Amino acid sequence: MRITLITVGKIKEKYFTGAIEEYAKRLTKYCTLTQIEVADEKAPETLSDKEMEQIKDKEGERILSKVKDSQYVITLEIKGKQLTSEELSEKLSSLGLEGNSDVVFIIGGSLGLSDAVMKRSNFALSFSKMTFPHQLMKVVLLEQVYRGFRIMKGEPYHK
To answer: pTM here?
Structure first.
């Protein structure tokens, strides 16, 4: 299975990059992982709704330029479907069985995802109704994908 992770913005904090590198290394046993970071738009603290949409649209264009038509897209959205670790594992397994072995996960920037990106999504996934920094979500997502593969293979994992 091929997993691509597209995120907005560069992660500079060593505590995040260290965790990301660790899960990326662990995932090599189960899949081919590609990580793509697209540039975020610089924005002042106060923005009008129109300015927010323009920023999300620009970031969205960058995201979509990295997505192939043949890829199955899972976006991380607050209003998405919440799954248990076992359900995420089953989702990944069933995608592979259905011939969707090239999966893209997308994490938006600080303002979220553009409408165009959400329309391209095949599945909206939510980890919580709370908002998290996208840097932290990258770590959490990689950990859950890793856990999902361990569950799929019948290997031990923390419950």
So the answer is: 0.95
